[in-house]
Specification:
Elements (H helix, E strand, L loop, with lengths): L1 H10 L6 E10 L26 E9 L2 E9 L4 H15 L5 E4 L8 H9 L3 E4 L9 H16 L6 H10 L3
Parallel strand pairs: 1-4, 4-5
Antiparallel strand pairs: 1-2, 2-3
C-alpha cells in the first residue's frame, strides 16, 4: 500500500524534474580478494588489519547521470546533509524540483525541510524497504563494482573515488 501511495504522490509532480538522492560509503579495502577454505565452504572472517579508511559519497541522480556529487571522509549525518543541500545541491537544481530521499533519520531534520522549502523545491520520501524504487541505489552498486578492481592500487583512494564519481556526471 505504501508503495502505491508513493507512486501516486510522485505522479502529482509530473512535469517537474525529479532527483533521487542517496549516500554511499566506500571502504578503501572493499573486500578480501583471496582466502582459503575447504572446498565448498565459505570464509566468514573479517578482513584483518587496522581500522579502514572510509570515503562517503552523496549525490542526486536523474536521467542516468549523477548530479552534484560530494565526496567526504567519514559518515553522513544531519550537518553533512544540510551543508550539502545549502552549498552544493540546491544551487544546482531548478526551482520546483522534487527530491526523493530514503527514510534515514538525518533526512527528516527541520533544517533540511526549511532549506528545501526556501529553494522552492519539494521533498518526497520513499516507502520503507523500497530501495528498488530508488535508481541511485543501482548506480552506487555499479560504481562500487568498478572501484573494486582499481581502488587497491590507487595512490590516493579519496581522490580516485571522487574522480570516478565525476566520470558519471
Amino acid at each position: 500500500m505504501q508503495r502505491w501511495l508513493f507512486q501516486r504522490e510522485l505522479e502529482k509532480f509530473s512535469g517537474q524534474p525529479v532527483f533521487y538522492l542517496d549516500e554511499c560509503g566506500v571502504d578503501h579495502r572493499l573486500y578480501r580478494e583471496f582466502g582459503r577454505a575447504p572446498r565448498g565452504e565459505r570464509i566468514y572472517e573479517a578482513v584483518a588489519g587496522k581500522r579502514r579508511e572510509r570515503t562517503s559519497l552523496i549525490g542526486a541522480f536523474r536521467d542516468g547521470k549523477l548530479v552534484a556529487p560530494l565526496a567526504f571522509q567519514g559518515s553522513c549525518n544531519t550537518e553533512v546533509v544540510d551543508v550539502y543541500f545549502a552549498q552544493v545541491l540546491l544551487p544546482a537544481l531548478p526551482p520546483g524540483s522534487v527530491l526523493v530521499l530514503d527514510n534515514a533519520s538525518f533526512h527528516h531534520s527541520p533544517t533540511t525541510w526549511k532549506l528545501v522549502a526556501d529553494a522552492g523545491c519539494h521533498l518526497l520520501f520513499l516507502p520503507a524497504y523500497s530501495p528498488d524504487l530508488n535508481p541511485i541505489e543501482h548506480f552506487w552498486a555499479t560504481l562500487k563494482t568498478r572501484l573494486r578492481k582499481d581502488l587497491p592500487t590507487a595512490t590516493n583512494p579519496f581522490l580516485f573515488i571522487a574522480n570516478m564519481c565525476l566520470c558519471y556526471c
